[in-house]
């Protein structure tokens, strides 16, 4: 595995590194979590992370930290820890009717899958609240009938490695948000992501709605 990996703490994308978990024997560098599996234990569960580094190399790591998610960007620090990275991005929109400009911003610590979002209207009113991409999890044993007569994961077919873990996460590309202003007014939003596995960081578009019935068309460019 090469040591010349691209650092991920880039000012435009990364707000902070957080939630460090100790490991051993990992060269420092950036990458992302391909999948997460649970290894049951009598004392406490371990979580097996399959990491794909920016060099293209892959590495499996067992941690006792349950807070990592598939497709999350991470960094292995110089002291051998796997670190979460906080990502952020912006968007723009306009209110209909009227055409009033709206500025959006979002922040996430799980690769853009969920986090917080804010919307600021030109008249000074602002909304903020949580957003979340709709996902589903399939247990690996549900795929067993598909392997009958073939090797598990169809690894010889060349369509990519199938994770040998307890479950697989599927990303719908549908994001929902519920934002609230200081005066109690609400704004609800739904977006469609360009690349679901990249979360909000991959960009997307959609619409928000105010209680008054006015709507906001929104566009989010890719963060990187």
What does this structure look like?
- By secondary structure, the chain is an all-beta fold.
- It folds into two domains: 14-85; 87-136 and 169-220, Lipocalin (Beta Barrel).
- The chain is 0% helix and 54% strand.
- The chain contains no helices and 13 strands.
- The chain has an eight-stranded antiparallel barrel.
- A hairpin with a 4-residue loop joins strand 3 and strand 4 (58-63).
- The chain is elongated, with a radius of gyration of 20 Å.
- The two termini are 25 Å apart.
- Residues 1-22 have low confidence and may be disordered.
Overall 3D form: elongated
Walk across the major sheet and give the strand order. Answer: 6-7-8-9-10-11-12-13
Q: Let me know the average pLDDT.
A: 80
- What Rg do the Cα atoms give? 20 Å
Distance between the termini: 25 Å
Q: Main β-sheet, in a few words? A: 8 strands, antiparallel, barrel
Compute the number of helices. 0
The share of residues in extended strands comes to over 45%
Q: Can you tell me the CATH topology of the largest domain?
A: Lipocalin
CATH class of the largest domain: Mainly Beta
What is the H level of CATH, i.e. the homologous superfamily of the largest domain? Quinohemoprotein amine dehydrogenase alpha subunit, domain 2
What is the correct CATH architecture of the largest domain?
Beta Barrel
Give the helices and strands as they follow along the chain: EEEEEEEEEEEEE
**How many domains?**
2
Number of strands: 13
**What structural class should be given to the helix and strand makeup?**
mainly beta
**Poorly predicted segments:** 1-22
Helix content class? under 10%
């Amino acid at each position: 595995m090469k040591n010349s990996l691209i650092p991920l703490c880039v000012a435009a994308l990364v707000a902070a590194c957080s939630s460090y978990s100790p490991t051993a024997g990992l060269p420092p560098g950036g990458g992302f979590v391909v999948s997460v599996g649970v290894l049951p234990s009598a004392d406490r569960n371990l979580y097996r992370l399959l990491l794909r580094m920016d060099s293209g190399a892959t590495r499996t790591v067992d941690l006792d930290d349950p807070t990592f998610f598939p497709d999350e960007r991470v960094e292995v620090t110089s002291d051998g820890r796997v670190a979460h990275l906080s990502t952020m991005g912006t968007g723009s929109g306009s209110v209909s009717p009227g055409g009033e400009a709206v500025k959006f911003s979002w922040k996430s610590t799980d690769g853009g899958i969920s986090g917080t979002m804010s919307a600021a209207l030109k008249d000074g009113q602002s909304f903020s609240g949580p957003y979340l991409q709709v996902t589903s999890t399939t247990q690996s044993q549900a795929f067993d009938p598909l392997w009958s007569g073939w090797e598990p994961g169809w690894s010889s077919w060349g369509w990519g490695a199938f994770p040998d873990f307890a479950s697989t996460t599927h990303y719908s590309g549908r994001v929902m948000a519920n934002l609230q202003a200081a005066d109690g007014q609400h704004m609800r939003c739904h977006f469609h992501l360009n690349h679901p596995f990249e979360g909000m960081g991959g960009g997307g578009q959609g619409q928000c709605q105010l209680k008054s019935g006015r709507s906001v068309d929104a566009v989010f460019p890719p963060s990187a």
